[in-house]
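Lab notebook, design round three. We kept the backbone fixed and only want residue identities now. Task for the bench partner: fill in a sequence for the structure below.
Input structure tokens:
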């Protein structure tokens, strides 16, 4: 992917997000009854709070509601927190998945020793980049969704559309931050020549920069986007369906719904993950049995999947599915429990000011 193409892609994404965020601030009205003594009520969330004053008079307080800015800040903090926790916990399973997808002749689920040997190798780079990437993703997604809600209203826009659109807007800036570390991580996990145990993350980046030019750090960029978008949409839509659209969830509820939603999304999108990992690890040449196959595969992401299905069948398409689902159960539970708790805490700070 060329630097110019990346620039225009990121610029377009930012312009879309900026255009949506320019909404007027909501006005907050408080209905104060004529009574000699007000009744204090705690801040329970964005919904209206109805309390009873002296003589049974109702006091209706329209609490501060979420704004795109508030959602962006709380999403930024929550996204960074969950990315740190999720990366640490799921990394060994992620390593096992990559090894099964890129070198199935050597690695096997029946040989757990070699499969998980040195499984934390290369974690520093994704740890450093996943935190800001996750923060950017949730900041953009949550702010976009809230802006759409304020502009169009709940009744005129289906929730599935606002969720899908918000995820799409967040994908480009997310992968612009994360893609270089994903390339390095994948090659180190797969044990590609030149990225072995004696090569650290900085040396790997220098090698890619020298051998493939800076664009090598964005190998598989669009494959990552095409994989992540349906995976994230499925995950968030399943989560919203299971949670019945509740705005506030307990961490335990969030972890259960998140684990199930992420597992479903990861299982369904395994073929997309196999292709993107092979692109980042070895290039499209490994996906074709001949140079002609390799050239045709480069033309189409769908062509890569078709070629993989024809040459390796279901075993190839769903290589590494078992550790992916296991990883999804863990990461999904951690992601949504951390997200709900952190976001709730940040929103309380806003609402109490």
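Proposed sequence:
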């Amino acid at each position: 992917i060329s630097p110019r193409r990346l620039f225009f892609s990121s610029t377009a994404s930012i312009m879309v997000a900026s255009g949506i965020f320019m909404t007027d601030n909501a006005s907050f009205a408080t209905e104060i009854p004529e009574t000699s003594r007000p009744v204090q009520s705690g801040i329970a969330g964005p919904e209206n709070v109805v309390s009873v004053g002296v003589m049974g008079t109702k006091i209706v307080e329209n609490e501060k509601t979420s704004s795109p800015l508030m959602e962006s800040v709380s999403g930024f903090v929550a996204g960074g927190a969950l990315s740190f926790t999720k990366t640490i916990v799921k990394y060994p399973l992620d390593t096992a998945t990559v090894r099964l997808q890129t070198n199935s002749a050597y690695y096997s689920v029946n040989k757990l020793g070699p499969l998980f040997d040195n499984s934390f190798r290369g974690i520093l780079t994704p740890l450093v980049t996943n935190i800001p990437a996750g923060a950017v993703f949730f900041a953009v997604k949550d702010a976009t969704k809230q802006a759409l809600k304020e502009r169009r209203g709940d009744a005129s826009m289906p929730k599935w559309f606002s969720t899908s659109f918000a995820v799409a807007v967040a994908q480009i800036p997310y992968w612009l931050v994360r893609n270089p570390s994903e390339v390095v991580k994948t090659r180190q996990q797969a044990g590609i020549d030149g990225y072995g145990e004696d090569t650290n993350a900085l040396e790997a980046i220098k090698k890619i920069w020298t051998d493939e030019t800076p664009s090598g750090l964005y190998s598989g960029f669009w494959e990552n986007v095409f994989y992540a978008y349906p995976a994230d949409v499925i995950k968030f839509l399943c989560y919203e369906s299971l949670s019945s659209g509740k705005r506030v969830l307990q961490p335990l509820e969030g972890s259960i719904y998140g684990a199930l939603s992420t597992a479903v999304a990861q299982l369904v999108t395994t073929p997309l993950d196999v292709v993107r990992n092979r692109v980042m690890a070895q290039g499209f040449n490994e996906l074709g049995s001949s140079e002609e196959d390799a050239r045709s595969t480069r033309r189409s992401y769908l062509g890569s999947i078709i070629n993989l299905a024809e040459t390796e069948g279901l075993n190839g398409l769903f290589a590494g599915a078992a550790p992916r689902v296991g990883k999804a159960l863990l990461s999904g539970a951690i992601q949504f429990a951390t997200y709900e708790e952190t976001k709730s805490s940040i929103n309380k700070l806003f609402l109490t000011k």
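Keep this in mind before ordering anything: Strands lie at 30-31, 49-52, 58-61.
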